[in-house]
Input
Amino acid sequence: MNLIDRLRLASAKRKQARDLDRHGWSGVYVGDYHSAPSWAYTIGFDETLNQPELIAFDLPKASANSTLGGSAAMRKRRFLTGLLRRLVERFPTLWWRFKKFEIRRQGLASAPTCDDAEEIYWTYSVGFEATLNHPEIVVANQAHGAIESLFALAYRGIRRGELVVRDGEPWDVLGLPRMVWRRVDRSRVTTDWFMMAMQHRYERRLDPHGLRVFQLVLPDSDGHLPWEPAYPEEERRYTAELWRPA
Output
């Protein structure tokens, strides 16, 4: 191995270490970056998520990064949301005090959670009803930071009278495609799905089961919504369709 090869190898190792530290995973691409045969595999899933590594064959480098990165982000979100759920179950009073402080400070708080299998995860708002006399909002299977930004935009739009939420109505914001509001079915309003929002009603001497919620539904990467025939069945497994009866 000549000096140039050693420098390239050292640079690749530094980048890999930086990715592992920053994102929890890194990718290794094998091939000429353009054509088959080529493949890419992950490093870090086993250590940070206790999950098997992934490999993708015969993809250009950009596609491999997108495929593995999307899978990594989804697995990481499920892992972190499941961990958060366990912490909430262990320290519910402390967590609820912190969320009430957020509501007093900014008018709303967000509550991420997931199902028992830790496969479907969602985040709902707490505070829209108390501060705006408006149903709460839930968004499923998206990064928590993105959901909080959507909550803030919706809160501001509702408060200013610029946003009216109705069942089946689209919401065009920030150039994002085909987001649609759906009314959450009454059978879904349970402590399994909306514990903190129901607790907030109870502490205000209101019937917890009278909670009203709208789900903001986002399309898949090809622009298909869950109730459309072209929506992938594989993604449906991880989709919280709360507008449907339980």
In short: The chain has a mean pLDDT of 77. Residues 61-90 form the longest helix (30 residues). The first strand starts at residue 26 and ends at 30. The CA atoms of residues 180 and 217 lie 5 Å apart.
